[in-house]
Design brief:
Elements: E1 9-13, E2 19-20, E3 25-26, H1 31-43, E4 47-52, H2 72-78, H3 81-88, E5 91-92, E6 103-106, H4 120-131, E7 136-139, E8 162-163, H5 168-173, H6 184-190, E9 194-195, E10 205-208, E11 211-214, H7 220-232
Parallel strand pairs: 1-4, 1-6, 4-5, 6-7, 7-11, 8-9
Antiparallel strand pairs: 2-3, 10-11
């Protein structure tokens, strides 16, 4: 699908949930997975628009705003009034005409396991992007949203697809696996995905057609760069 946009437009979707399951732990979008793609894509000349299920201010995981999880991108974003305004004033996802966008980028964080992973509008959006050959880029926990995405032929989108995402052993390392609604690694493999991972916290990007996935926070930068290159072709 060619949107006809001279300046490529990327819809960046954040979770509206700030609590991890029933644990009561604060969560939201992982900061560097928001900040890195924002700057990498905009500096390449692309437009980035933030959206979330509820619109308005989308929560950022507080842990990801503290050392050692901060990066040069998060520091820059935090001190950038335009970027912070965008994160605090996201568009309501259902009110966005996503057919006018050339790609979608979904950062990780635990909040999305509660809202985006079970939101029928989000699942249809991903299906529509994928079936019109527009890139679907997802990093860290975001590929969990693919669990229930089905294509027009009734098959799971991930069936037979090479992909990656946050590992069980990475969740165990931060002692959060037991708090999750479901395991990304287990569920996607049950749907027929060819799950590929590297060592914990290593940058890892897997591209299979229009589906582009990154394993951990360190994968946000190379994933955004790979998406930017695709959009510049």
């Amino acid at each position: 699908m060619n949107t006809g946009n001279r300046q490529k437009r990327v819809l960046l979707i954040m979770s509206s949930v700030d609590e991890l399951g029933i644990s009561g732990k604060q969560t939201g979008t992982w900061f560097t997975e928001l900040a890195a793609p924002y700057y990498i894509l905009t500096e390449a000349g692309h437009e980035v628009v933030f959206a979330s299920p509820q619109g308005g201010e989308a929560p950022i995981d507080l842990l990801s705003m503290k050392a050692p999880f901060t990066t040069s991108y998060t520091e820059r974003f935090f001190n950038d009034p335009v970027a912070m305004f965008a994160a605090r004033n996201t568009r309501k996802l259902r009110e966005v005409d996503y057919n006018t966008y050339d790609a979608v980028f979904i950062p990780g964080g635990y909040g999305l396991l509660t809202d985006l992973a079970s939101d029928q509008h989000t699942l249809k959006l991903i299906k529509d992007f994928y079936e019109t050959d527009r890139p679907v880029a997802m990093v860290c926990h975001a590929p969990a949203i693919l669990r229930d995405v089905t294509l027009s032929n009734g098959e799971y989108l991930v069936k037979g697809k090479e992909l990656t995402g946050f590992k069980n052993s990475e969740d165990e390392e931060v002692e959060l696996l037991k708090h999750l609604l479901f395991s990304l690694e287990d569920e996607l493999q049950r749907r027929g995905a060819v799950y590929k991972s590297k060592a914990n916290w290593e940058p890892n990007v897997v591209v299979d057609g229009a589906l582009m996935t990154g394993q951990s926070p360190a994968s946000a930068d190379p994933l955004a760069e790979a998406l930017s290159e695709v959009l510049l072709k």
